[in-house]
Amino acid sequence: MWRDSKEGAIGQKENHSFKSHVNFLNNILPKQYQIDLALIDDKVVGMVAYNEIEISQLYIHIGYQGVGIGQTLLQKVKEQSSGRLTLYTFEVNENAQRFYEKNGFTIIGRGHENEENLPDIQYEWTIK
């Protein structure tokens, strides 16, 4: 789900092997972030990795986008935040930009280095 959603969002194949991704999800990401999954009929349709100040990953299955799953996950993250969240999204991912801006995030930076070598945008949300 995560790989398909990411590839669809940025228009390029994942650089890492499936095995490498499994290792990242099981052993690296959980050291800094809480990971929540959205399930429908025991199928993972969404995931978010976050802590009190940052969203590291937020992906929704391609077939389930636009039905409120991302909104539900994001709301939970906001409720558990310090009152301020930052995140990065790829510049080519216009759907993500619309989603975050609709949910109160504003652009605070551009050009963070990433493994995909794609321009990206840094967003921030603060509680009002």
Beta-strand segment tally: 6
Number of helices: 4
User: In one word, what is the shape?
Assistant: globular
Query: Largest beta sheet: what is the strand line-up?
Result: 1-2-3
Average of pLDDT: 90
Helix content: 25-40%
Low-confidence sequence ranges? none
User: What does the largest sheet look like?
Assistant: 3 strands, antiparallel
Oligomer: single chain
Rg computed from alpha carbons, rounded to a whole number of angstroms: 14 Å
Q: What percentage of amino acids are in beta strands? A: 25-35%
User: Could you give the order of the helices and strands?
Assistant: HHEEEHEHEE
Which class do the helix and strand fractions yield? alpha+beta
Distance between the termini: 33 Å
Describe the SSE topology.
Blueprint: H1 2-10, H2 18-32, E1 34-40, E2 43-50, E3 55-60, H3 69-79, E4 84-90, H4 94-102, E5 106-110, E6 120-126
Antiparallel strand pairs: 1-2, 2-3, 4-6, 5-6
Describe the structure.
The protein is α+β, with helices and mostly antiparallel strands and 128 residues long. The protein has a 3-stranded antiparallel sheet. A 3-stranded antiparallel sheet has the order 4-6-5, with helices on one face. It is 34% helix and 31% strand.
Key words describing this protein structure:
about 130 residues, alpha+beta, 6 strands, globular
